[in-house]
Design goal:
97 residues; mainly alpha; globular
Length: 97
Amino acid sequence: MSLKVRDIENLWKKYENLAKMTKDEGLINLIESQGQRILECSYSQKESEPFCGIGGLVEYSLELLKICKNLNETLKYEIIPQSMIKVCLLTDLGRIG
């Protein structure tokens, strides 16, 4: 089985732009300083699982944000978008080691 080929450049632009939307200097600095490691990180180590391979962590974070936005809208929670973005971008950042 081969790893999924991702549009790394496009994924990173989305991820970076979302971080900038939060206007949180700490988050932006973290993304800038650790960007290479974040982008190269796989979410999963098993080829048979989604989000395995380079860019997997970024792709996972973006998919998670889509789900959170949909739940927020559907359930009418009115969660601040910046909060959702921060949580989704940072929730599995420990995977970069």
